[in-house]
Amino acid sequence: MHSPPFLQHLADRPTPIAYSPPPGVPPILYADDALLIVEKPSGLLSVPGRGPGHADCLLSRVQALFPDARIVHRLDMATSGLLVLARGAEMERRLSIAFQKRQVGKCYLAVVAGRLTQDRGEIRLPLITDWPNRPRQKVDPEVGKASFTEYAVEAHCPEEGSSRVALIPHTGRSHQLRVHMQAIGHPILGDELYADPAIRAAAPRLLLHATRLSLEHPVSGQRLSFDSPAPF
Questions:
Q1: What is the DSSP secondary structure assignment for residue 59, as one 8-state letter?
Q2: What are phi and psi of 131, to 5 degrees?
Q3: What are 28-45's pLDDT values in tens digits?
Q4: 95 secondary structure, DSSP code
Q5: N or C, fewer C-beta in 10 Å, the chain?
């Protein structure tokens, strides 16, 4: 007896993992009266999730030290790396505008399955929420929102069947880098949402790290740049 297609699809989805974030206040790389630059570990939510079991997050931990800290962008729970927080409502407004106007430079490092045929390229695939399978996103050429990612191969690892790739998102869609890499046939290792079981199991975590970030200081206008080496 065959299962209906929708049940087969559900069976292919990974089993949810209990939320057990790493302990401690994330490293604060920079702090002044306007903003904070924090290094988020993989496994920690950026902001509170649904339900009391998901209240612990980077924001709440940072607010224990800086009560006026406010989130202006997020990283997926499984993603690690650099995150900007504003201090107070006015700095939140200024930094949010900078993100909306795409004045903040971001670069990620990922380890993906396979060998890319081109060392550099662009991915322009429109994305939309896959509502029956939230929080998954999907490519939709008809109603998806314009999404643009640049990539550059940093190294090939033939013995592991993978490549280290720098990813620059020029838009900020949910799961953009993860969906774009999966869509071109090179999912990120350890991706519980978009990779097949063998590629999920190839790494103990999602191998995606926000490694570089640059922005204009919201008060002085000075250009600030930060680097965070990938822990993989």
A1: H
A2: -55, -45
A3: 999 999 999 999 999 999
A4: H
A5: N
| CA separation for the pair 97, 94 (Å, rounded) | 5
Pair 72, 95: CB distance under 8 Å: yes
The pair of structure tokens assigned to 213 is 């970030």
- Largest Cα separation within the chain, whole Å, is 68
| Domains by residue range for the chain, with CATH | 5-227 (3.30.2350.10)
pLDDT in tens, 167-202: 999 999 999 999 999 999 999 999 999 999 999 999
* Digit-coded pLDDT (tens) for 77-124: 999 999 999 999 999 999 999 999 999 999 999 999 999 999 999 999
**Tokens 């063998």 -> residue:** 198
Distance from C-alpha of 111 to C-alpha of 134, rounded to nearest angstrom: 24
The residue among 165, 169, 179 whose CA lies nearest residue 104 is: 169
CB 182 within 8 A of CB 209: no
Least Cα distance to 29 among 232, 227, 229 occurs for 227
76 is catalytic: yes
Kindly tell me the sign of the dihedral angle through the C-alpha atoms of 38, 42, 44, 49: positive
Catalytic residue among 12, 56, 76, 191: 76
Predicted local distance difference test score (pLDDT) of residue 1: 44
How far apart are alpha carbons 64 and 75 in whole angstroms? Answer: 20
List Cβ neighbours of 12 (8 Å cut-off, separation of 6 or more): none
